[in-house]
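Archive transcription. Copying these from loose printouts into the bound notebook so they stop getting lost. Printout 1 of 2:
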Amino acid sequence: MINLRSLEIFYWAVQLNSFSRAAEKLNTTQPTISQRIAGLEEQFGTQLVNRATKPFSLTDSGRALLAHAELILRQVAKLEHDLGLAGRVPRTVRLGVSETIVHTWLAQFLEESHRCFPNIDFDITVDVTPTMMSTLQAGEIDIALMLGPATVDKVACVHLVDYPLQFYAAPGFVQGDRLTIDELKRLPIITYPRNTYPFSLLREKLFRLTDQTPRIFTNSSLATIERMAADRIGVALVAKDAFSLSLVRGALVAMDSDLDMPSLSFCAFYVLGVNGEILEQLVEIARRVATTSRHAEVSG
């Protein structure tokens, strides 16, 4: 009798092209992955994986098994869905989130997800987009809510919401309520890290407009950016509504600007494959919550 868990382990080891990444995703150990695949090879009496290559490759028998394994696992997932079992099975979803989302609608997403899937627990990591994309492709997270869009092999990308980029400053730090190019040339601008496209685009635009290297301070923490702006170190450029509490307290004010910057587009990414239906449903919840939250902020 073929063991479904062994087929699942084999499938994900191939999909992620790594025994260690499969172990991380399936919450087991690398020796267990090796033992399960070796057990399948013994059961079928043929080599499935060529371990001499780096990374490993499949033999002809391994490729044949992969096709059947995916078919079987998808059929099992469909059966669980049709019987209403998928949402009732305890499961941990590893979620990567941009900090902007933490400051806007993450709490509502978690609340709605727990209402729809009470047996799902979330393991949450907050990081910048380039890092999350790497960990997603490595199989270390299941869903990433981050800047996009992007086209990545075997990864779905679903648009969630757009946020305009907004300048913020401490009250009285800037004369008037509009930042001119001359003021942006003079003042430090505090924004997202260097390996994100808001920084690269901001630097390029200011360089072209002022013919000098702009003064840009970067940080991966929105809380730190917020504090630096409130302490009058410079003006902050982040997603609109990220500093709502500071606006309410009067620690910061929103500033218009002569600099035209495109909106930040946030998307949900998840790896396509077996058992992707739950991830797809969670992403739909994220899309719905993000849209509702943004509409509420605009109308408010």
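Printout 2 of 2:
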Amino acid sequence: MTPDGRLRLPESELGWRFSRSSGPGGQHVNTTETRVEVLWSPADSTVLTPDQRDRVTARLRNRLVDGRISVVSSTHRSQLRNREDALRRLEELVADALRPAKRRRATRPTRGSVERRLDAKKRRSQLKRDRRDW
């Protein structure tokens, strides 16, 4: 974590893949690989404690492919800006996964909502009872 509270993933833990991007760019888009994919493995991370590693793995399990998280960026025309964008999004994703979940405060339904629900149930059962009597 940096002094401003932002998570920083070391460059040594990141894997990068580049490919040609679709979209605007004219002839330039056909010759340069501006689409960026950053890969990071939470299991192999030295930045996280074992508890943090478990939390990130559990919260991001839907995004894990072969144990790695992948973030793709192709919004900018330059590879450098796409690299910065992909890294920022990955760090935000991991930081959100590390944030503790809010505890649910138990509440009771209001008297009005209970009465409306029971009223609707009575109307529905009466409707079905009327159908039976035909």
